[in-house]
Amino acid sequence: MNSELLIQSLPKQGYALLPSLLSPDLCNRLIESYNDSQLYRKTIEMQRYRFGQGEYKYFQYPLPEVIQKLRSILYPPLSVIANEWASHLNTGFSYPADHDQFLLMCKEKSQTLPTPLILRYERGGFNTLHQDLYGEIYFPFQVVIVLNQAGVDFSGGEFVMTEQIPRAQSKVMVIQPNQGDAVVFTTHSRPIKGTRGYYRANVKHGISEVKSGERYALGIIFHDAS
């Protein structure tokens, strides 16, 4: 993992693209496990809740080894940036350097349910703009990894982010990662330096309509849910 890329990209644009974080073999194995019901605690049909059109499943504890490792490896360098952002925005919150310690903070607020998930979109599928907040404690970054290849396995399905700057129109960012690429992005908001110090920009994310094929993705969220 390129920690320097995170440090450079996240403060500048609110997201970072990490190429080839997962191998094609690992991606394919995660897709193949999609129908293994023993791995999941809950399945969500997006259309039912007006989240979009598609399906996603929350993994249950114990997490698959690759997901547990991703959470443990990605969290420490992100916690450094998270604390910088908390300072800029005067949140009064401090993130521990170790992910297990952060999960203990979640547990103290009765947030004990795992949040990593796998998503599947078929033709016509999409995900409305949203933020993944599951309780009082949340981590300001999350990760999505595309598990199959745009232009081969599916078309459309771009990753979309909007950034709302106070008293201005929203900025839109559109990203199309390759198989195994990870997008690290802000969960809720980020600080932007202005002439009078830092101000808060609200960020949402979603998926554009899948035009053909099936799109699979893995979502790594670092806080647990209540």
Q: Explain this structure to me?
A:
It is a single chain. By secondary structure, the protein is α+β, with helices and mostly antiparallel strands. The protein has one domain (3-221): q2cbj1_9rhob like domain (Jelly Rolls). It contains 4 helices and 15 strands. It is globular, with a radius of gyration of 17 Å. The protein starts with a helix and ends in a 5-residue tail after the last strand.
Primary descriptors:
alpha+beta, globular, 226 residues, 4 helices, Jelly Rolls
- Which series of helices and strands comes N to C? HEHEEEHHEEEEEEEEEEE
CATH class: Mainly Beta
Rg value:
17 Å
Beta-strand residue percentage = 35-45%
Total beta strand runs: 15
**Largest beta-sheet details:** 7 strands, antiparallel
How many domains? The number is 1
Number of distinct helices: 4
Model regions low in confidence, pLDDT < 50 over at least 5 residues: none
Kindly report how far apart the N and C termini lie: 30 Å
Shape: globular
Structural class: alpha+beta
- What is the fourth-level CATH superfamily? q2cbj1_9rhob like domain
Average per-residue pLDDT, rounded, comes to: 94
Q: Which percent range fits the helix content?
A: 10-25%
Spatial strand order of the main sheet: 1-11-7-15-5-4-2
| The CATH topology | Jelly Rolls
CATH architecture: Sandwich
